[in-house]
Design a protein that fits this description.
Number of helices: 10
Helix content: 40-55%
Shape: globular
Structural class: alpha/beta
Radius of gyration: 18 Å
Strand order of the largest sheet: 2-1-3-4-5-6
Largest sheet: 6 strands, parallel
């Protein structure tokens, strides 16, 4: 995608008025909304038909109760990793983000709906995801990091810091191995050392890679 090309998005939101306002705002900012829908079934169909750069998805969509939008988003990521996914939620539901990023941190995001009212920030997040990045709402990040130690990044070796930085760019272990010219098993060894040095235990319900990347981002934000 060149700088002159408009980002193409699909919007899935079951509240008609909110969806209309969201679509209008995106189009006003130069984003090409190629489809809009109110349920998870039509969302999947729209993504298959249009192959957008980003699908903007409410976590809870019809049909049925529960996080149907999340389930559709996970299916979209697995079927076509080149389609970015931005989840929207009315509430802080941190566990849903870890579900979404099981297959990697590239082209993915999770924001609270209240952030959408911040015009520039929301469109910036959509553009960042389209470009391959990851966006996490500050409240989601805080919930995921609750009770975790401060990120002692200074205690990492140069290679560990390099591996963690590439994780934060959304690269998989195999992509990191190719970038650094090392084996995949060596990357895994460095990753395990990073988790240990940051105090991130391999516990049930814990996504070590996500927590390590969040610590990396927080540390760099604190320095800015």
């Amino acid at each position: 995608m060149t700088a002159s090309e408009a980002i193409r998005v699909v919007v899935a939101e079951d509240h008609a008025l909110y969806r209309e306002l969201l679509v209008e705002h995106l189009r006003h900012q130069g984003v090409d909304v190629v489809a809009e829908t109110a349920d998870a079934v039509r969302l999947r169909q729209a993504v298959r038909a249009t192959r957008p750069d980003v699908a903007i998805v409410d976590i809870r969509l019809p049909p049925g109760p529960g996080p149907t939008g999340l389930h559709a988003a996970v299916e979209i990521r697995r079927a076509d990793p080149d389609v970015g996914v931005l989840l929207l939620s009315q509430y802080v539901e941190a566990q849903f983000f870890t579900t979404l990023v099981t297959d990697g941190l590239r082209k993915v995001g999770y924001l609270l709906k209240e952030r959408v009212s911040g015009a520039d920030g929301f469109v910036t997040a959509v553009r960042r995801i389209a470009a391959g990045g990851c966006v996490v709402d500050p409240e989601i990040s805080a919930r995921l990091l609750h009770g975790r130690p401060e990120p002692a990044l200074a205690g990492l070796t140069d290679r560990q810091a390099e591996v963690l930085g590439l994780m934060a760019e959304g690269l998989s272990n195999s992509a990191i191995a190719g970038r650094l010219g090392i084996s995949g098993s060596t990357v895994e060894t460095h990753a395990r050392a990073v988790y240990q040095d940051l105090g991130i235990a391999d516990e049930k319900g814990t996504h070590q890679r996500v927590l390590a990347v969040l610590m990396y981002w927080r540390a760099h934000q604190d320095r800015a």
